[in-house]
Design goal:
The chain is α/β, with parallel strands linked by helices and 679 residues long. Helix 3 packs across helix 5 and helix 18 runs parallel beside helix 19. The protein folds into six domains: 57 residues, no CATH class; 101 residues, Tetrahydropterin Synthase, Chain A, CATH 3.30.479; 40 residues; 162 residues, Magnesium chelatase subunit I, C-Terminal domain (Helicase, Ruva Protein, domain 3); 48 residues, no CATH class; 204 residues, Rossmann fold, CATH 3.40.50. The chain is extended and about 130 Å long. A hairpin with a 5-residue loop joins strand 6 and strand 7. 46% of the residues lie in helices and 18% in strands.
């Protein structure tokens, strides 16, 4: 081997041992012949003398040290297991290397012993509720003991506190007792405040006998079903927004009735005569509602285009006549609702259907549009209104909490009409009649057993019966309307607007919600979000335009999305989707054939158990095909084939199919009625 190669190898080895590179977060403590140099080296390039110098690397980054779980007995003698985490870093590399053999191991052991000693001096409640204070105490102690080692402890956190199962149950009972104590204290404070207010109220009422009598009579005033209908129709006729006006008129009428009766009672007492209250004296009358409506609705009325101011005498006369008409309508509506309630109590659903159909046939001609809605001269949109027949729903076995007056659903609380009794494991609403009937056959056997002091009627747990109540719930009706040029725009859109607005008028009284989705061009939009406001519907319907292509899939999915959103807000809502179109979709959404996409959308609607009603605008109920825009005759439906797209969509969505016979005469309403009855 040549000598120069040997020398080259020695030089390379020498340089490798002499040259060291330290990173930005590293420092080097150099020992020369066993003695440490003045200060740490780094970062960067470091030159060492081979064999003579030795360098120890020290990292200056923060170290996360996990303290193992420690068995600790707290100050109040509770055995727990606690672990923690310590954050520290080296600030003086020379002390960390020279003053302690292994600073990592030393810090770990010191952390464990400090954790046990500090937690042993604290009570369990302090450990659970004042953990930040204990963390600060641990950090101070560790930082103080590790400072001579060149280590800075920045933070200490207690992670988990494990308790035995028995202790967890004890703490749970303690917390429950504390909550009960707070609840009783709050209840007592409320009773004290209520008693104070009642004392003040009694002092005020005692100074005026009229006020005392009026307060008592206010609690006895009742409002019949007929008068409630009268209030609703008066608010509709006045064109007010929301249901707050109904409540204001109702309370005002109750106060007027109580004032009238209180005046009569005091007059008789001052005259020394005994007051004999006639039947119905504490029931709100039509006169009370007329006065209350004039007081409560005058500032809520809104002037509409076309209204001309009338003379005071003429306005009062017209208003009085109008209120008399509304009173007659309320009397008819109350009678109809009473008949429907009696029919809904029949046990068989078929009997409900037959009785409802018979009542509809014997009801005679329906009232005109002016009899159930506001006057036609006040409308802001182009649409023919027509009367809305009663959309009756059969009994719903599923409990629903949504408010409304249309459908009958099983009630989950103590509200609603008591219809039958059942036996359950836990009885919360006792049906006393059914309970007595269940216990009656067992009375001879139970009385034969001697039991001193036992009651005459001996009941056992298996005798208890639970009441099943039913109450009225609301419905969400979503109209998906084809506003493209494929529909006979003027005739059918005009009739469709009238149908939607007529349903809105009915929904105002029955507390339902109606929404409108319109599709044309290349998109579908929500023209009317779920609402019961008639005025908002008028404004939105007035802006509807027609024309363009037919994105049928877009409309179906927009309606489905709207129903999903409402179900997220209220899982108990009962939706009904009404599609009005000819089924000739010609715009794709996912790149497939438009008809196939519409079929997939209809199947998805059916899988989500949404009731649907498909109204074919190109065919009437007699089977005659209607000529659409473009001049295609009966034989050219869907490109000249005999395939009926709307009927196919109805079958795929498990819904009902109707042809367009005469929208202005209520074909949509009749279809909605049949669909909801099939619920």
């Amino acid at each position: 081997m040549p000598i120069y190669l040997f020398i080259l190898a020695v030089v390379v080895i020498f340089l490798a041992m002499a040259i060291k590179i330290l990173r930005e977060y590293e420092r080097g403590v150099i020992f020369r012949l066993g003695r440490v140099l003045g200060r740490p080296k780094g970062p960067g390039l470091i030159i060492l003398i081979p064999i003579i110098d030795r360098m120890v690397r020290v990292s200056l980054r923060t170290v996360v040290l996990e303290v193992p779980a420690q068995d600790v007995i707290t100050r109040d003698n509770v055995s727990i297991k606690v672990n923690a985490v310590v954050y520290f870093r080296v600030i003086d590399p020379m002390k960390a290397i020279i003053d302690v053999e292994n600073f990592l191991y030393a810090t770990s052991q010191l952390s464990q012993t400090t954790l046990r000693s500090v937690l042993g001096q604290a009570e369990l409640d302090d450990l659970l509720s004042h953990r930040e204070r204990i963390n600060e105490r641990l950090q101070e102690i560790l930082d103080k003991h590790t400072e001579p080692w060149g280590i800075k402890v920045s933070n200490v956190e207690v992670k988990n506190v494990d308790l035995a199962q028995e202790m967890q149950r004890v703490i749970a009972r303690q917390a429950e007792a504390e909550r009960e104590r707070r609840a009783k204290v709050i209840s007592a404070e409320g009773e004290f405040q209520a008693a104070t207010k009642l004392h003040e109220a009694s002092d005020i009422l005692s100074q005026n006998p009229m006020a005392l009598q009026l307060r008592y009579l206010t609690t006895l005033v009742e409002i019949s079903v007929e008068m409630r209908w009268f209030i609703a129709l008066a608010c509709i006729d006045a064109g007010v927004l929301g249901h707050r006006a109904d409540l204001v008129v109702s309370r005002t009428a109750q106060s007027l009735c109580a004032v009238r009766e209180a005046e009569t009672v005091i007059d008789h007492e001052m005259g020394g005569q005994a007051r004999v209250r006639p039947a119905g004296a504490l029931s709100v009358t039509a006169g009370d509602i007329t006065v209350a409506a004039d007081l409560a609705l005058r500032h809520r009325r809104r002037d509409r285009p076309g209204d001309t101011p009338a003379k005071p005498s003429q306005g009062e006369e017209a208003q009085r006549e109008r209120m008399e008409e509304l009173a007659e309508q309320a009397r008819a509506q109350a009678a109809t609702v009473e008949n429907e309630s009696e029919a809904s109590e029949q046990p068989a659903p078929d009997a409900d259907q037959e009785s409802s159909d018979t009542a509809a046939q014997r009801g005679g001609p329906e009232p005109t549009a002016q009899d159930v809605t506001r006057r036609g001269v006040e409308q802001l949109f182009e649409g023919d209104l027509f009367p809305v027949r009663s959309i009756k729903l059969p009994r719903d076995r599923k409990s629903r909490s949504a408010s409304g007056k249309r459908s009958s659903s099983q009630s989950r609380d103590k509200r609603g009409r008591y219809v039958r009794a059942i036996q359950t494991e836990r009885t919360t609403d006792v049906a006393f009649d059914a309970t007595f009937r269940a216990a009656a056959p067992h009375q001879p056997r139970r009385r034969a057993k001697p039991s001193p002091g036992a009651p005459a009627l001996r009941l056992e747990k298996q005798d208890l019966r639970q009441k099943v109540r039913r109450r009225r719930t609301g419905t969400l009706i979503v109209f998906v309307v084809d506003a493209s040029a494929s529909m006979d725009a003027e005739q059918r859109m005009r009739a469709t607007k009238g149908a939607v607005l007529s349903l809105l008028r009915d929904a105002y009284v029955r507390r339902d919600k109606v929404a409108l989705v319109v599709f044309s061009g290349r998109t579908a939009r929500v023209a009317l979000s779920p609402t019961g406001s008639v005025d908002l519907a008028e404004t939105r319907l007035q802006r509807l335009t027609v024309g363009g292509t037919t994105p049928l899939t877009h409309g179906l999915l927009a309606g489905l999305k709207l129903i999903r959103t409402e179900r997220l807000r209220d899982p108990h809502v009962f939706p009904l989707l009404v599609l009005i179109s000819d089924g000739r979709g010609n715009i794709s959404l996912f790149g497939e054939e438009p008809l196939l996409e519409a079929q997939h959308a209809a199947e998805q609607i059916g899988r989500e158990h949404i009731r649907t009603l498909i109204i074919d605008s190109a065919k009437d109920t007699t089977g005659t095909l209607l000529t659409a825009i473009g001049g295609r005759g009966p034989g050219s439906l869907l490109g000249g084939t005999g395939f009926n797209a709307c009927l196919d969509l109805a079958e795929r969505s498990s819904g009902e199919y109707l042809g367009l016979f005469d929208l202005s005469q209520g074909a949509i309403i009749a279809g909605v009625q049949r669909t909801l009855r099939a619920r």
